[in-house]
Amino acid sequence: MMIYKTDEQVEMMRKSALLVSKTLATIAATLKPGIDTLSIDKAIGTFIRDHQAIPSFLHYKGYPFNSCISVNDVVVHGFPSKKELKEGDIVSVDIGVILDGWHGDHAYTFAIGDPGEAVMQLIRITKESLYKGIEKAVAGNRTGDIAFAIQEHTEKKNGYGVVRELVGHGLGRSLHEDPQVPNYGKRGSGAKLKEGLVLAIEPMINMGKKDVYTEDDGWTVRTLDGKPSVHFEHDVCVRKSKADILSDYRPIEKAEADNPNLFTQNKMAATSS
Ligand code: MF3
Ligand code: CO
């Protein structure tokens, strides 16, 4: 069953999504080699609770942490741990909140130091594919149109692996609502999109093959070939001619640019010229 949100409800959801953006930006400012991901997770929990919200991932189907922090070949659902980040790592930080009963759920992948040109390209293409998917999140289209756009940009144009086992989703009073939003598929297939539908669109793209496995902890998803994987996620509301992006990468990108320990496309251009 798909649940369409009123304009008023969409504004409530924007607040939830933007709290996640703000949390991600705050975390981005603190990332550096030597920091362990459990301390990042603790800071995330504190920041969310300080803003009158609840970390929604904690206890979700028994998930034991505030956030998912996925390093290198971990695709998603990585457990925060005492292990320290090091130069050349990439790290996806995925955060969910409940604010006044409404969910926000979005994610960003950061580069700690220079992971090399090929990995920076994977990051760039995955982020681009998210926006190409969002362009298709308009009334009258179907989830398969979003899926096709993402797959086209990542798999067909760049030869990357699109993860099949995990998908984007509807979002609202629950973390996972209908419809499912795969990152692969046929144009014109899947659920029809109508105004007021809020979606979490989240490409999970592998440098190598698409295959993944889940560790014995029941959560950690890794690439089978051990190559890196990138994850970006936005919350968007379907509208007539253009989707309304409720979350916001601008504060995160600002923090990323200002943090000398983080590598970005711009910093890459600056060092190679
Ligand atoms: N953003 C992910 C999702 O949409 C993470 C949720 S898994 C959780 O499915 F258990 F950590 F909540
Ligand atoms: Co999600």
List keywords for this structure.
Creatine Amidinohydrolase, about 270 residues, five-stranded antiparallel β-sheet, binds 2-amino-4-trifluoromethylsulfanyl-butyric acid, alpha+beta, binds cobalt (II) ion
Description of the molecule:
By secondary structure, the protein is an alpha+beta fold. The chain has a single domain, classed as Creatinase/methionine aminopeptidase superfamily (Creatine Amidinohydrolase). It has 6 helices and 16 strands. It has helices at residues 7-28, 37-50, 117-135, 143-158, 250-258, 265-272, and strands at 54-55, 67-71, 74-76, 90-99, 102-112, 161-162, 168-170, 177-181, 198-201, 204-206, 212-214, 221-223, 229-231, 234-237, 244-245, 262-263. Strand 14 and strand 15 form a beta hairpin. The protein is globular, with a radius of gyration of 17 Å. The protein starts with 6 loop residues before the first helix and ends with a helix. 49% of the residues are buried. Bound molecules: 2-amino-4-trifluoromethylsulfanyl-butyric acid (MF3) and cobalt (II) ion (CO). Cobalt (II) ion binds at residues 105, 169, 200, 202, 233.
